[in-house]
Every structure is written in C-alpha cells, then in structure tokens.
Amino acid sequence: MKLQFWFEFASTYSYPAVMRVDKVAAARGVAIEWRPFLLGPLFHAQQGLKDSPFNVVPVKGSYMWRDVERTCEKYGLPFRRPGRFPQNGLMAARITLSLPQDERPNFVKAVYQASFVHDRDISDPQILHAAARRAGLDPLEVLAAMTSEPMKDLLREETAKAADLGIFGAPSFVTGDGELFWGNDRLEDALDWTVRGTLRPNTQN
What are phi and psi of 56, to 5 degrees? Predict the structure, then answer.
C-alpha cells in the first residue's frame, strides 16, 4: 500500500504533515512516496496569483497563522512563524528529488525545522548544507543538485504532474486509485482510503 505525499517547502500546513506522516502511515502499514513540487507556478496558472493566497487576502493569512499555531500545539510540534513568507524552497526541492525515497524524509524534516522552528532562510546554501548534515547525508554531494540541469528539469516535470493530478495546494495526498486529499487534516482520511482500497473487491473482469 502506497500513498503519494505532495508537499511544498514554503507551505505552512505541510510542516505538521511532514513531521507526523511517517508515524501515522506506518501504523496503517502504508508506504509514503515523498513528492516535492512548486506551488508558485500552479497558483499563477490556476488562479492568476503571483503571491501566496495568504498574503493576497490578509484576513485569511491572519487566520492561517493562528490555525497553524493551534495545529502544532495539538501535535506537540515546536513552531516559530518565519520572518519571510513564503520561503523559497526551489533548491531544497531539487535536492530532495536527487535523493532516493528512503533518504528524503530526514532531509525534508530538517529543512522544515530550519524554516518553521528556527526561522532560517532555506534558500541559503549554508542552511541546506546544515540540513543535509543533520540528515546524515554528504552535504557537498547533495548540494550539487541545487544547480543540476537534470534536477531542474525533474522539478518542472514533477510540478506539471502535480497539476495534471488536479493538485492546487499543499500538502496533498494521492491514493493508488487516484483519489486526491488536500490538507494536513486530511492525512488520516487519505491513509484510511488507501487501506480500504485494498479491501474493496475488484469488479473489473
């Protein structure tokens, strides 16, 4: 059983999802596919936005920040509002795509903690160097992906795939049968759907 986990490093609600997805997925016997992508191109293509909706509509942004504080308190996660929002997660996403699936979670978590716990600039190579080191990776080898042409192309392809799947926000979860669930608060629903899918009878001949 597998579930695709689509996340954006600038996404506030992706932070609690990233920090808890492994545990709740393992409890249900579901493997997670970590899929970074970029929301900016989707916002622009789908909604004509050049900034986060939370900045475009200030009252929505104010609610979001308080809601994220409540969410992190609920799950016992440290949280510090970044001084810059949205952060630029372009290079972090390229690095993540260069890693095999089993090496992605620790690096991704280290980057999110740098952003949403320590208020570090995650577009800074030194911050990504430190995140790679904390994840047990070779920083010099990993950081080469930041300017790698194949990784640039792959990130564009992944973002296009996200759009093709109907993704419009992060975090998003896509099940094996193509069901889309959006939001940290839909993680459990996505996992439960994945588990039930293995129990539903196959009606195809």
Answer: -65, -40
Position 198 scores a pLDDT of 59
Q: How many domains does the chain have?
A: 1
CATH code for the domain of 17: 3.40.30.10
Q: Is residue 176 part of a domain?
A: yes
Place 44 in a pLDDT band, splitting at 50, 70 and 90: low
Contacts 24+ apart (CB under 8 A), 53-58: 54/12, 54/85, 55/85, 55/86
Helix axes 125-134, 90-98, angle to 10 degrees: 40
Strands 172-175 and 180-182: antiparallel
- Closest of 115, 7, 12, 110 to residue 70, by C-alpha: 12
Q: Name which of 158, 25, 184 is nearest 89 in CA terms.
A: 158
Tell whether the model's pLDDT for residue 201 goes beyond 70.
no
C-alpha R_g of the chain: 17
204 in any annotated domain: no
Decide which of 140 and 115 is more confident: 115
Higher pLDDT: 47 or 74? It is: 74
Helix (H) / strand (E) element for 7: namely: strand 2-7
